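Researcher: Let's walk through a ligand-bound prediction step by step. First, I give you the protein sequence. Second, the SMILES string for flavin mononucleotide. Third, you return the three-dimensional complex as structure tokens. Ready?
Model: Ready.
Researcher: Here are steps one and two:
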Amino acid sequence: MDGTGLEDMPRTGSAVATYVVNAAVWAPSVHNTQPWRFASQGAEISLYADGGRQLMVADPGGREMIISCGAALFTAQLALRSLGFVPETRVLPDPADPLLIARLRWRRQAPATQPEEQLFRAITRRRTHRGGFEPVPVPFRLVEIMREDAAWHGAALRVAISDQSRAVLAAITQNADQVERLDSAFVREIASWTPPPGSMRLDGVPVSAYPAYLDLTDPNFPGRDFGRPFGWGLPLSARISPTRVTGVVCLLTTNQDGPAAWVHAGQALQRILLTATTCGVAVALHSQPVEVSWLREAIRSQLGDGSYPQLVLRLGTAIQDATSIRRPAANVLEISRRSPDHVNAVGARTRA
Ligand SMILES: Cc1cc2nc3c(=O)[nH]c(=O)nc-3n(C[C@H](O)[C@H](O)[C@H](O)COP(=O)(O)O)c2cc1C
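Model: Step three, the predicted complex:
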């Protein structure tokens, strides 16, 4: 990986944990809240949701916080695979501690596969896209692979194929966006995760991550305002064509709607996003329609099979110039010194 210091082969449990968390922090999270913390002891990492970073207005049930942690979990698993470890994962292992999202152990080894290596290398390259796409079709086979990615984690990626289903989802997203814009509590919460230009903050959505202009498409899926109303954001980006399109509209769904389903939705989300990155496809995310409960219910009734919408995704081609920010591993990882540091059998191996 580039620029993250992940190239060196870690030799001890604490070094593996640092390597893994260095990668995991690059997972996507709602408003870049990075609602996670990690604790490591020997050859084990515990991933906790950080309740202090939950969006109490947009996400009072913690669903998006836990989806974000699921994305971090998949990234951590991938980082272990990149080292040739087979992660043993227990999701929500302690009913008495709902913030403990997963425990990851590594004991066995097996070389990473080429697809795993490719996904791993995409972790720091992946960026959330905001706006329209170039009028370039997304390969059908890629969408099929992404559907398999979702199914791997027990989730489903449904593609809105007909003009009517795209229009319905767009209308619901516009409605949700309007509801949130008119609610001062929502507006204040977004503002608190929108650092101003020149900010030294390492969380929230920076001005380098969204366009300073409205990038409308037909049908239109409104982006979050973040700092655009203040004139903040990136200037008009490089474009191949003056025409901007909506892209392939998808809905990520699960059969259940509790913390375990949300963790799996997050794992599926990150696998899908990284697969897209490896193929040069950009993804825009819209969670407004699942934050307003009656509109989420409206989508659910359209699905008609009892499944639960978790996130709207749009896939397409774009020249991406956005950059993002993260808190480093040192800020979110606590390494227990209670037991002697575990030395990996793999320590002497060099990466292929
Ligand atoms: C559950 C969830 C919901 C999200 N909702 C939105 C959204 O509605 N609009 C948006 O622009 N980005 C959304 N994002 C993307 C985050 O804003 C993004 O991951 C974060 O700012 C970090 O930037 P990066 O993905 O480019 O690394 C969401 C991400 C997650 C995990």
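Researcher: And what stands out?
Model: DSSP finds ten helices and nine strands in the chain. Residues 1-6, 346-352 have pLDDT under 50 and may be disordered.
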